[in-house]
């Protein structure tokens, strides 16, 4: 009996102890779970806030997008260029143009026709909205190389910048001043002045589009090729700094000559464009949307229709 009693006491004791251990374990697991949950929430807020913000901003755009999918506006870093079929990696275009200029077969030549519409020197309140209307109607995206002082001009120009991004186009940096004398004093490339002007433009764009705005795309006023031929050493030094900062400059290989020589009417621009685009597999097309470029807007629908008929797809550069 006594043995049995003692045995059952020990069993009872052991059961109690096990129950206590189980309860303790449950409490530990519960607390650990709570801590993990809180930690995940906090890190989520920290790392994904800009992306969520961006997703919210682009949501309204995706409704009227032809593919129901829109790249993350101006922020090249939020969405990998490779993940969106309408977005080209700016570094790819830079390399492609460089090899083409050197008379080499570009690595990126793959038989696929791609058109990169680009508009420099804007925004303007007279021409840019017309161009945006046409692009919307044609369901085509473009890259706008913005001049900071034009963007910062007034509420209307600032709103046009917002509209460009909202409608799914890309924004590139065309410097703040576009002033040759400042950027290229004595026809020499000034790394300091160019970089200062690029960053000043970035500040303007961030003030309009929000602090998360970034762009990797640079277009030199007058073109990289022009200043590279005048001051190759100066340009090599500048290129090094640009690449350290993950900036990529792109010129063009097709143009309408809407900013060269005498002003031309739309049919002359279209003819020039057709001559220029011939044989171009990747067509980086230079046009302008600044004041006085109404003929460019008039020519644009036919230029886009021509490209579509020729089998080009359209991409923006980021
Ligand atoms: Zn320009």
Automatic annotation (TrEMBL):
Protein's name in the database: Xylanase deacetylase
Q: Which domain of life is it from?
A: Bacteria
Q: Where does the NodB homology domain lie?
A: 113-315
Q: Which Gene3D superfamilies match?
A: Glycoside hydrolase/deacetylase
Spans annotated as Disordered: 48-86
| Molecular function terms from GO | hydrolase activity, acting on glycosyl bonds
Keyword Calcium belongs to the record: no
Question: Pfam families given for it?
Answer: Polysacc_deac_1
Show the ranges annotated as biased composition (Basic and acidic residues). 54-67
- Chain ranges passing through the membrane: 21-40
Give the keywords, sorted. Carbohydrate metabolism, Glycosidase, Hydrolase, Membrane, Polysaccharide degradation, Transmembrane, Transmembrane helix, Xylan degradation
Biological process terms in GO annotation:
xylan catabolic process
* InterPro entries, per the entry: Glyco_hydro/deAcase_b/a-brl, NODB_dom, Polysacc_deacetylase_ArnD
